[in-house]
Amino acid sequence: MHDIVNGLGVAAAFGAVGVVLLLLGVGLVDALTPGKLGHQIWVERNRNAAVVLSSALIGIGGIVFTAIMSTYDDFGKGLIATATFGLLGLVLMAVAFWLLDVVTPGKLGAVLVDPEPHPAVWVTASCNVAVAAIIAASIV
Fold first, then answer.
1. How far apart, in whole angstroms, are the C-alpha atoms of residue 129 and residue 140?
2. I need a labelling partner for 44 at 20 to 30 A (CA). Which of 7, 22, 33, 72 fits?
3. What is the pLDDT of residues 67-93, one digit of tens each?
4. How many CB atoms are closer than 10 A to CB 11?
5. CA atoms within 13 A on the CB side of 67
6. Which residues contact 60 (CB under 8 A, 6 or more apart)?
7. DSSP string, the chain
8. What CA–CA distance (Å, rounded) separates 99 from 129?
């Protein structure tokens, strides 16, 4: 029974770190795109914004998963690694977004909240997932 209680505590701690990182991801995408992201997705039903946010959340989830699986034997180290790698992923996703915005025509943020479907959304989403995969692969 002690193992179950201990496991629940560990899961709750890692879950809390993961949820905080996911919320930071939402805030990051919201900061990088014009207007209120929640309004864009839930009220205006903007698929472009939803795809970009979803890709960021999937990416962060992958980083968190990999960090937990790689350091589960040492609880403290695992929590720190999860938070650190998750934050690094968020920073690098923001940098990749900025670089993509620099090398492409127009303002990427404005394209992503345009109600008309745009191919740049898939490029941006793929970039989020690729950056997260690179971070996840680097965790040892």
1. 19
2. 22
3. 999 876 788 989 999 999 999 999 999
4. 11
5. 29
6. 21, 22, 25, 86, 89, 90, 132
7. -HHHHHHHHHHHHHHHHHHHHHHHHHHHHHHHSSS-HHIIIIIS--HHHHHHHHHHHHHHHHHHHHHHHHHTTSHHHHHHHHHHHHHHHHHHHHHHHHHHHHHSSS-HHHHHT-SS--HHHHHHHHHHHHHHHHHHHH--
8. 15
